[in-house]
Amino acid sequence: MMMLLSAALVMSAQSVGVVSSIDSVQILIGDQAHISLKVNMGRGQKLVMPEFKRSEMITPGVEVLEITPADTTSLDNDMISVERVYTVTSFDDSLYSIPPMEVSVDGKKYHSGKLALKVLTIEVDTAHAEKFFPAKDVQDNPFQWGDISTLFWLALLMLALLLVVYYMYLILSGKKPVLFKVKFIRKLLPHQKAMKEIEQLKASRMTVQENPKEYYTRLTDTLRKYIEERFGFSAMEMTSSEIIQHLQESGDRKMIDELNELFQTADLVKFAKYSTLINENDMNLVNAIEFINTTKQENQPVEEKVVPELTAEEQKTRKSRVWLKAGIWICSLAALALLVYIVYSLYLL
């Protein structure tokens, strides 16, 4: 008996109740009313409430504008209350009867009560037409300096940048570019230079007996230049004995002895007024040629890159042109960015 009584109380506590209400029973055409649908049921029960699409008629003449999400509130005795609000409107003046709204709880159908909605029209006083005014034209918003002040100053900045670009362009056009070309000239190898000078010396053979000092000076200078370029030490600034000492580290001993004999003869001629014989001159010339042919290096580059050196004024001109070009590019890009921003901002206005 007690168990049956408890079951009856539980069932009574979890009974389903459906209540609907409207916040205003009469509205003007086009106004809105709000229908509240509240369902009381046990916690855990499955509820399905009415769904309407936007502009769908809840009853002919009354259409649904919006449906709010379900709002759940806890009640006593393990009960809950679920509420939903339906916003409706109408554009025809009439008295409408809103039919009961159907819900499903655990598959069982329940209905709310009927509702009434009266839609009123606005009365127009046609007897006093002077009270009616035509629609007003589109009016411009009042001018606000603050709306465009930033764009105005940015436009001035853009114009200033363009003036700077023009000024730098005038300066750049007045500075002629410094042009120079890198040349590649045919380079004579050390032994070729030496043999060329010796050929010139042989061509002037008729003056040897008249001026032996000049002859041996030219011959030894030719050998010194060749030794300096070929072996890489400053032979032009050394004495004959110092040159021979450096050459003794590499080379044929007989060849160096013959070269030493040539230098000694040359020193005697230049400093002791020593008189040489014709065959002695020929032998020294042959020894010089043999030394060059024995020590020459033929597998060497035959072209030489010649880069002209710029003066201080030309270097200054080149640097200033580079800076002017960079300034023109930077200012031009900045002015273009400002122009795009200003046009876009005006478009948004």
Structure overview:
The chain is α+β, with helices and mostly antiparallel strands. It has 3 domains: 16-120, Immunoglobulin-like (Sandwich), CATH 2.60.40; 146-180 and 308-349; 191-304, no CATH class. The chain has 8 helices and 14 strands. Strands 1, 3, 5, 6, 7 and 8 form a 6-stranded antiparallel β-sheet that branches. Strands 2-12-9 form a 3-stranded mixed β-sheet, with no helix packed on it. Strands 4-10-11 form a 3-stranded antiparallel β-sheet, with no helix packed on it. A hairpin with a 4-residue loop joins strand 7 (71-74) and strand 8 (79-89). The longest helix has 37 residues, at 312-348.
What distinguishing features does this structure have?
single chain, 349 residues, alpha+beta, Immunoglobulin-like, 3 domains, six-stranded antiparallel sheet, three-stranded mixed sheet, 8 helices, 14 strands, 46% helix
Using the alpha-carbon principal axes, give the shape. elongated
Q: How many separate helices?
A: 8
What ranges have pLDDT less than 50 throughout 5 or more consecutive residues?
Answer: 1-13
Largest sheet: 6 strands, antiparallel
What would you call the structural class?
A: alpha+beta
* Topology order in helix (H) and strand (E) letters: HEEEEEEEEEEEEHEHHHHHEH
Number of structural domains:
3
The residue fraction in helices comes out at 40-55%
Topology readout:
Blueprint: H1 2-13, E1 17-22, E2 26-28, E3 32-42, E4 47-48, E5 57-59, E6 62-67, E7 71-74, E8 79-89, E9 94-98, E10 102-105, E11 108-111, E12 115-120, H2 145-174, E13 183-186, H3 190-203, H4 212-231, H5 240-247, H6 253-272, H7 278-295, E14 303-306, H8 312-348
Parallel strand pairs: 2-12
Antiparallel strand pairs: 1-3, 3-8, 4-10, 5-6, 6-8, 7-8, 9-12, 10-11, 13-14
